[in-house]
Design brief:
- It is a single chain.
- The strands form four sheets. A seven-stranded parallel sheet has the order 3-2-1-4-5-6-11, sandwiched between helices. A two-stranded parallel sheet has the order 7-10. Strands 8-13 form a two-stranded parallel sheet.
- It is built from eleven helices and 13 strands.
- With about 300 residues, it is an alpha/beta fold.
- The chain starts with 5 loop residues before the first strand and ends with a helix.
- Helix 3 packs parallel to helix 5, helix 5 runs parallel beside helix 6 and helix 9 crosses helix 11.
- It has two domains: about 190 residues, Rossmann fold, CATH 3.40.50.720; about 90 residues, UDP-galactose 4-epimerase, domain 1 (Alpha-Beta Complex).
- This is NAD-dependent epimerase/dehydratase family protein.
- It holds the Pfam family Epimerase.
- Keywords: Membrane, Transmembrane, Transmembrane helix.
């Protein structure tokens, strides 16, 4: 029998998971990935080695989750349907995100795991009333995805009270990096800009480009997950961002510099709802000992030049 601890990782074959798993292996964990492989990368999982097991199943089936979690001491729950898809098909979104959350949390409570790390989202805030966004701010989730993420945090608190489940909910801001899917709104913006810039065409920005996001590199996201798995403090939501809001206009200029093109952004004058995002990172530092290591200019430049 191996003395290594096993981490149960839902959605572990996806974009973020494939950055987290190697870090877990470095820390001498075994990993049991539980993923329906709808967006998972089977070849990448196979290349991770003998200490990684893949269970091709769906979090909607509570019996499967419960059986597969047996023998695991820690849980990372990342399986979810994306924001865009949740609006296109709210029924499927509720099924996977809400029922899936409950199946994983209930199983973790019953198995008495040491720690559950939940991949939540900064989208639970909705349109923030102030910047930077703090964990104790009002939550106004807008889409079925965001609503399920918020409900997941409430469910964790329930199982903490009922079964002493130890948890950390990580509210990820705008994640980017190698291996990202092009379907998320902001990654499609990045790809659209880069394609135009590489063709010698200017990126076209609606309004003045004042809309902003807090772009956090997937390497730092992965670090935060491992830190949350082992942190002494628990039972709180934690923002994972850089604390810096990068406007769409600034992003376009970073990408132009990364490609090395001689173009200027074009602005399409129209009324745009200016949304802004920036994380208050105080709690991440206090609870997890986490600070981001990759700034947006460095991360985006490496991403573009590595393509």
């Amino acid at each position: 029998m191996s003395s290594k601890e096993t981490v149960f990782f839902t959605g572990g074959a996806g974009f973020i998971g494939l950055h987290v798993v190697p870090m877990l292996l470095e820390k001498d964990y075994k990993v049991r990935i539980f993923d329906n492989m709808f967006r998972g990368d089977r070849e990448a999982v196979a290349a991770l080695g003998d200490d990684v097991e893949l269970i091709d199943q769906d979090v909607r089936y509570g019996g499967s989750v419960h059986a597969a979690m047996k023998g695991c001491s820690k849980v990372i729950h990342a399986a979810a349907v994306s924001i865009n898809k949740s609006q296109a098909d709210p029924h499927e979104s509720m099924d996977i995100n809400m029922i899936g959350n409950h199946n994983v949390f209930a199983a973790a409570a019953e198995h008495g795991v040491d720690r559950l790390v939940y991949c939540s989202s900064a989208s639970v805030y909705g349109d923030p009333e102030r910047l930077p966004m703090h964990e104790d701010d009002k939550l106004l989730p807008i889409t079925p995805y965001c609503i399920a993420k918020r409900a997941g945090e409430d469910l964790l608190a329930y199982y903490q009270r009922r079964a002493n489940l130890s948890w950390v909910a990580l509210r990820f801001f705008n994640v980017y990096g190698p291996g990202q899917k092009t379907t998320a709104y902001y990654t499609s913006v990045i790809n659209h800009f880069v394609n135009r810039i590489k063709n010698g065409e200017p990126p076209v920005i609606d309004g003045k480009g004042e809309q902003s996001m807090d772009f956090i590199h997937v390497h730092d996201i992965a670090r935060s997950v491992v830190l949350a798995l082992e942190s002494e403090q628990a039972n709180v939501p934690v923002n994972v961002g850089t604390g810096i809001d990068t406007s769409i206009a600034d992003l376009a200029r970073i990408l132009i510099d990364a490609v090395g093109a001689d173009v200027e952004p074009q602005f399409n004058p129209r009324d745009v709802l200016v949304g802004r995002r920036a994380a208050d990172t105080t709690r991440a530092k206090e609870v997890l000992g986490f600070e981001p290591t990759i700034d947006v200019r460095t991360g985006m430049t490496e991403l573009i030049r590595g393509q």
